[in-house]
Amino acid sequence: MKAYAYAGPMQPLAEMQFPTPVPADAQVLVRTRFCGVCHSDAHLQEGKFDLGEGQDLALPFPQGVVFGHEIYGEVAAVGPAVSDVKPGDRVIVYPWVGCGACELCRGGLEHVCQSGLMIGGGQNPGGFGDHVLVPHERYCVAAEGIEPAQAGSLACSGLTSFGAIKRIPNLGPHSRVVVIGAGGLGIMGIGILSRVFGVSPIVVDVDEGKLAAARAAGAGQVVDGRGPDVLMKLMELTGGGADAAIDFVGSEHTAPLAFHALRVGGKAIMVGLFGGTLKIPAALVAMQLKSIEGSNVGTMADFRELVALARAGKVPHIPVSLRPACEANAVLEDLRHGRVIGRAVLEHAHS
Ligand SMILES: [Zn+2]
Ligand SMILES: [Zn+2]
User: Fold this and answer.
1) CA–CA separation, 299 vs 296, rounded Å?
2) Distance 159 CA to ligand 2 centre (A)
3) Which numbered ligand comes closest to the C-alpha of 39?
4) pLDDT at position 52, please?
5) Single pTM value for the model
6) Topology (CATH level 3) of domain 2-156+298-347
7) CATH code of the domain made up of 161-294
8) How far is Cα of residue 183 from the mean position of the Cα atoms in its chain?
9) Burial class (CB in 10 A: 0-12, 13-18, 19+), 24
10) Boundaries of every domain in the chain
């Protein structure tokens, strides 16, 4: 099999040949058709993750690791213990694989397992390879009826938006929800809020094009974050504060805005990883009964629910630019320089 593999920090990925894995036990071999390229792939290639204020999280990968976690393809072969998946099935791969043994994994939270290895982040090979070895059939979710080039991104950007939305208590058409950031994740979130839950969120961004896209995706109101009195406008539009605010940016400017825009008892949900330090008046957390909650992709159960919604046509499509897999390095550069609209998706050639 062929793959575009890690060749050291900041080095271009290298085209490499590996023996095609043979699935054992409950493993599944997937022939990759499409794999979305994510900002986190660019971080992985850099070998570090910027936490802001000069702090880094080192990502010590050995050379030869194959990234890519937004995987769509068809089952090529299955191990002898596989019962529900068969060759030829079209599947999306849930990549957030945990160790399977810790308390988090046993409680259904393997996506935040501290010793797990996600597919495309150490568990080899990921979707920048033309085949992916899935460690257990339960990570393969049927994708029939979903546009193939859109499908893989449900496992990352789609699930991240959906996972955050699922944290809003008593969500319904009456809910007053503020969304900060109308980039890829935000637009997906606005679309899901509007189509699945009947909510028309109030959306803040600093870019006119993105605010227009937010309106088209189902925003009830939009607020230009560069303007004066942003918080006052949010208070007005929510009638005294939001039930929930989702921060898809996660900067030292957006996070306090999410917090202050809440009503008494409201919940701020932190998703974005822009970085910086969160500063809020500590006493207000207590006095106003507010909560701040982190959200990171989503559980397997959330993912199955999201895929079912996508199969029913309820998840908005995102613009996709298809690129041949051999352009993986160029795509990562484009992502770093903000030249990708929507999702860049690699297409693998199979003879
Ligand atoms: Zn991702
Ligand atoms: Zn675990």
Assistant:
1) 9
2) 19
3) 1
4) 66
5) 0.93
6) Quinone Oxidoreductase; Chain A, domain 1 (3.90.180)
7) 3.40.50.720
8) 12
9) exposed
10) 2-156+298-347, 161-294
